[in-house]
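Subject: for your reference before the review

Hello V.,

The reviewers asked for a structural picture of the protein, and I figured it would be easier to keep everything in one thread rather than splitting it across files. Below is the amino acid sequence we used in the manuscript, unchanged from the supplementary table.
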Amino acid sequence: MKIKIKLDEMMARRKIRLNELAEKVGITEANLSILKNGKARAIRFSTLEELCKALECQPGDLIEYEME
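And here is what came back from the structure prediction:
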């Protein structure tokens, strides 16, 4: 099982930079970078909600389950 975070793809579509998104969401650029690069082991629902608000998307636009 592998869960892929597609944050970088959505950021590119919305033409938003990491520092701008971090400010809107209220988390550090370092933590957002960890999430963006797929290194995060977990994400809070509150953070996911704020990301969806800032990027005007659904959770499924940011998270994908890859079958092996």
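For the response letter, the relevant points are probably these. Residues 19 and 29 are 6 Å apart (CA to CA). The longest strand covers residues 2-5.

Happy to draft the paragraph if you're swamped.

O.
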